[in-house]
Amino acid sequence: MTNRALGKIAALLLAATAFVAPAATAHAQGSSTADGLPAGNQQSGSNAVDLIDSLGAPQQFDAIVRIGNCSGSIIALPDSKDTDPALILTNGHCYNLKMRDGDVVTNMPVREKAYLFTGPNPRRVGTLPVNKALYATMTDSDIAIYRVGMSYRDIYRYYRTVPRVLSDVAPTVGDNLHVTSGYWKRTWDCTFDGIADKVQESGWTWEGVTRMVGPSCKTQPGSSGSPVLNDAGKIVAVNNAGNFDGAACRNNNACENNDGNITVIPGARYATRTDQVPGCFSGSEVNMAKPECTLPGGAAYSGHALQLN
């Protein structure tokens, strides 16, 4: 690792020590080190996913955040280290609703804060500094990933919460899904109803979108960016749209476009895909040049022309 990289990590750790930790209960039972980390994870630079696995299944509101007027979640990617800056996953329209079709934003400095929740019921435990929009788009996907000014290790040390992980197993029709919102501090229970080829709302089109239905699947504005969780607590998609009034392809009335055939499903809710994210990141840095990066703007993206910012 270069001296420059070491300096960045040191600066993040120093910044994190300025936070006053609230009282917090342990995430799970088991032995721990002097700083509260689980035994076996005391070595700096350990894989963040190993830390998650050592603590067992997450509680419903673990790693859930409110950011602006949206919801989101802290996530770790397969190669994330516990000393890496934490990442927040939310919607592209939560970054900037005025993004045009074709816009892709990378590495844009921001000054935001995210309110962090944890526990089986929503308990706010801290406020996280958010300093960069690493990636955001509303083209073909509706996704944004922010960088937090604290590492996964320090977030666990102070708040006893660990990040969510993206599921590598796709749901099957009929599976239970749970949309957990930091904005509304509640969860909606939904049923997976398949994948829509394309979903349209106003001037935007998203591809490979998760469709959710059910009598209690009544997400509201403000739930945008909420992780869609399977029964194991892993993220399968990010809640981003719905058909609220039965209208076609207008604001708050998303429709489906399957090979040119427009379908309106009143009451349906939709969530943007997340499986493309790991292929475009190296640790907590966006890397659009990776050959496996299929997000809009990435080396393997085959969609329409983009305006990179």
Would you spell out the secondary-structure blueprint of this structure?
Layout: H1 3-16, H2 48-55, E1 64-67, E2 70-76, E3 85-90, H3 92-95, E4 103-118, E5 123-137, E6 143-151, H4 152-159, E7 164-165, E8 176-181, E9 186-201, E10 204-213, E11 227-229, E12 235-242, E13 255-258, E14 261-263, E15 269-272, E16 281-282, E17 285-286, E18 307-308
Describe the model.
- With 309 residues, the chain is mainly β.
- It has a domain at 3-166.
- It has helices at residues 3-16, 48-55, 92-95, 152-159; strands at residues 64-67, 70-76, 85-90, 103-118, 123-137, 143-151, 164-165, 176-181, 186-201, 204-213, 227-229, 235-242, 255-258, 261-263, 269-272, 281-282, 285-286, 307-308.
- The chain has a six-stranded antiparallel β-barrel. A six-stranded antiparallel β-barrel has the order 8-9-10-15-12-11.
- The radius of gyration is 19 Å and the shape is globular.
- The two termini are 28 Å apart.
- Mean pLDDT is 86; it is low at 1-34.
